[in-house]
Amino acid sequence: MSVIDLSRLPAPEAATLQDFETLLAEIRADFLAAMPDDRKADLEETLALESEPLTKLLEQSAYRIMIERQRFNDRSLRLMLAYAEDAELDHIGVTYYNASRLTLSNGEQERDDAYRRRLLLAFDGYSTAGSRQSYQYHALSASGDVLDADVTRVNAGVVTVTVLSRLGNGEASGALVDTVDAALSDETVRPLNDQVEAQAADIAEYEIRATLTVRNGPAKSVVVEAAREAAAQYAADRQLLGLPIVRDAVLAALWVESVELVELHSPTADIPRASHQAGYCRLIEVDHVD
Fold first, then answer.
1. How many other C-beta atoms lie within 10 A of the C-beta of residue 64?
2. For residues 60 and 4, which has the higher predicted lDDT (pLDDT)?
3. Overall pTM surpassing 0.70 (yes/no)
4. Which residue pairs, CB below 8 angstroms and at least 24 apart, start in 228-235?
5. Which tens digit of pLDDT belongs to each residue from 54-109?
6. 3-class DSSP string for the chain
7. Confidence band (pLDDT; 50, 70, 90) for 14?
């Protein structure tokens, strides 16, 4: 789905870090400009000495201004969808997208990244022509337990929506499929000539098993744990419909700092996925050569 990737947008000016030395130079220049001409030379000599109380006062002022500016910039960023988190994201979602955060069946709140993704699809939900992204938005909004949804048309007038669950290995329960089906069958969502059929995604489980050769050092276990966490993050990022598991990408994830060689036992080849399929990594086993 062609959802905008907010991470690819250039950082706004508010994200620019403040430079202490530049700010200090500006304050010194303004301070000297405000002094009588007959005192400027003496003050310049005084400010050249780091130990002078006046120098320290200007440095402290520059530092406080830098901190306050950065704090203001951080607050400004949190008003943007790409950077908002927690309560700020909730307010943006409700105010501008008329979409509130969902609650999962286990009582947890929808995570920021999942909520942000739905918000990017929210305006497609107003479509009355049955667009793919409209169906996807309503499927994701049907329940907090829906991790992903894909929309295909097999026959004229028949829309198939594949549902990937957030729970377990991703296989959607019958109750979750029924919930999505009911949400998409509402006449305010689907065009009258569409027949919507919801189905559970096909789950293919796989394992990541590797042996690392690590440089000599006192913390080999730390390196192995970092590699395992990187592999786990890759597996989590790829647990979406239609995303293949790429063997070279698994190798790259395991190749963290201080790793000399990766012997990847599983997967032995790329694992392709169709749009109605998703992978689930059931085991990550990483050890090292002694």
1. 10
2. 60
3. yes
4. 228/284, 228/286, 230/254, 230/256, 231/284, 231/286, 232/281, 232/284, 235/208, 235/279, 235/281, 235/284
5. 889 999 999 999 898 888 888 888 889 999 999 999 999 999 999 999 999 888 99
6. CCCCCHHHCCCCHHHCCCCHHHHHHHHHHHHHHCCCHHHHHHHHHHHCCCCCHHHHHHHHHHHHHHHHHHHHHHHHHCCCCCCCCHHHHHHHHHHHHCCCCCECCCCCECCHHHHHHHHHHHHHHHCCCCCHHHHHHHHHHHCCCEEEEEEEEEECCEEEEEEEECCCCCECCHHHHHHHHHHHHCCCCCCCCCEEEEEECEEEEEEEEEEEEECCCCCHHHHHHHHHHHHHHHHHHCCCCCCCECHHHHHHHHCCCCEEEEEEEECCCCECCCCCEEEEEEEEEEEECC
7. confident
Side chain identity, residue 103: T
Structure tokens at 161: 């929506």
- Amino acid identity, position 162: T
The token pair that represents 127 in the structure block: 């479509």
